[in-house]
Amino acid sequence: MSGITSADLDTAWDVAVDDAPVALSAQGDLVAVAGAEGTVWVLDIATGATTRALDLPGGLLDVALAPDARHLAATGPFGYALWRRDDGLTTVSQTGAWSSRAIWADEGRVAIASGRRALVLDPDGGELWSTETAASTVTDVAWMRNGRRLAVAAYGAVCCYERHSRTPVVTYPYVGSHLALAISSTGRWICSGNQDASIHIWRTRDGSELTMSGYPEKVSRLAFDDTGTWLAADGAPDVTVWDFSGKGPAGTAPRSLSAHETITALTWRPGSAGHLASGGEDGTIALWHATSGLPQARLSPARTLDGGGAVTALAWAGPDLLIAAHRDGRVRAHRLPQRTRL
Amino acid sequence: MSEPTSAPQTADAADAEDGRVPVTVLTGFLGSGKTTLVNRILTEQHGLRIAVIENEFGEVGIDDALVLDAEEEIFEMNNGCICCTVRGDLIRILGALMRKRDRFDHILIETTGLADPAPVAQTFFMDDEIAAQLRLDAIVTLVDAAHLLQHLDEVKPEGVENEAVEQIAFADRVVLNKTDLVRQETIDEVVSRIRAVNALVEIIPAQHAEIDLRRVLDVGAFDLDRVLKDDPAFLTETEHQHDATVTSVGIDVPGELDEDRLNGWLGNLLRTKGADIFRSKGIVAIAGESRQYVFQGVHMLLDGEFGRDWREDETRRNRLVFIGRNLDREALERAFADCLTTAGTTAGTAA
């Protein structure tokens, strides 16, 4: 393996939480760590010190800090919780419904998957609007059009909703179960990672479709970079990176990033340099010039970090700090040299 | 694993310690005693940390157990293949369980009375994340001795499967409950009808679902060496045959198999008849291979690996069983005989 293979990046901090982390969120001066059993630890981004902890009974699946870091949404198998930083008030909604995802449109609105619907809430938990019932439990949600449109993935379709209409404004049907949703920042592409080991792609302009099949396993992690031209996906030991520039990836081959046996986390570094961080079941974190080389190229990491226990989540706190959570409870902040280098 | 319609290819899993968490699937009609059995499993002192996934909402935590609710979500795939139908709710819930730091010792999935066991079983073949960490230990079907015959005889509309028949066909263990409520003749009749569908299944008589839990939890029912060695006679026994469309066909033939021909036959059989074959299991001798080849399948999905070495003094033989609808015993036996290395010289003979 070429590249630098040592842990010579500065570790800004290294802390441990008393659980297996399942999700991370970094915004402003905070990092939120969601533990599988139900505790969210809110850490100071400079030191890693726990500033607050809150609980969602029954466990956690996702956590999301608002862009201004003044609120936090946490979701789990039995409901969701909202936390207000100003006075520490935590509002727990034990709906009994499976909530797999929370994602903020802006500092004033958060979308929460709740059973077979998605809810749009104000930061204190007031319901602004909600979607109709999907064919299955909602698996993922994503905002489009600067937070005016909400895409909701479930079995059989990705449905897009807007506030004025309870029924979908656009429906993108597909026979299969969508596990993950990624929408390009350009708004041109909607992609779903699927249980049937494929990526399904819709061009929003005309609804034309494309399926990338042939993955050995289900595709449950999928992410566009900030420019909306590069899509990274799991579903194989190698991370695949598809080029969505121009007419899109039809007829092209992806780049393959080879470092892990089983991919457990994927996240693009903020910016347009094509830098990607990935994590593996074996505890390795790899950093990539993911868009270099030619299509079909098999790339090696620019750098790998050995973290110990399986990586369970990765999050960038700006372009220079990568937060990594490991199943053994370790949470580390790795400081990168500068935004143009890995 | 889970390569549809492929035979010997995953080798070397022989004696590797299987650290995967065992999963028991509990099926059975409403009133068969499933809830009673689940409650026994939750409350009895067995020292196991158990997670129960059931269909009634109950956020109950009893001692070391966790009870989760699952509303059946059947996911079909774009290719329209029935074998690719899985339970989305289970994938989701099991996925979350596996992300916890402390592992459960055992997972119990209780299905609704009318649930089709196939998507449940197929979930363990089709989803690699689950297959890597969890092991389908046994499908346990509870039946009510007093009502089973009525359920089995219920005439369904064309194209609709009788769920009671299906649940018996898929079972590795049948708990014959409420035997205190019927006469011995009825029990005999019920047992015979169960065997007609599923010749190899272990039948455990019970009253008030009182059974030794060791007979249904972590029994390794998918450990075929045990299943098939119990009583090879069952494999070819025909006297139990009832005029049922769902039956078992057992094959027990000495000799060695040509790997390519076995692959070709089994692949083609499951591809063309997989919709009708609920379960398939086998331990066979491949020519030139020192180890037994062990496989099991659910509809079109087959999972196989090389098992233990054949012993010096052991006759190399092939034991297979198919449980399914409209099985043609003679055609299966004939086609299988063609896979023997001796085929063409001396015809394979059924034991």
UniProtKB/TrEMBL annotation, chain A:
<protein>
    <recommendedName>
        <fullName>Anaphase-promoting complex subunit 4 WD40 domain-containing protein</fullName>
    </recommendedName>
</protein>
<dbReference type="InterPro" id="IPR001680">
    <property type="entry name" value="WD40_rpt"/>
</dbReference>
<dbReference type="InterPro" id="IPR015943">
    <property type="entry name" value="WD40/YVTN_repeat-like_dom_sf"/>
</dbReference>
<dbReference type="GO" id="GO:0000027">
    <property type="term" value="P:ribosomal large subunit assembly"/>
</dbReference>
<dbReference type="Pfam" id="PF00400">
    <property type="entry name" value="WD40"/>
</dbReference>
<feature type="repeat" description="WD">
    <location>
        <begin position="263"/>
        <end position="298"/>
    </location>
</feature>
<feature type="repeat" description="WD">
    <location>
        <begin position="180"/>
        <end position="212"/>
    </location>
</feature>
<keyword id="KW-0853">WD repeat</keyword>
<keyword id="KW-0677">Repeat</keyword>
<dbReference type="InterPro" id="IPR011047">
    <property type="entry name" value="Quinoprotein_ADH-like_sf"/>
</dbReference>
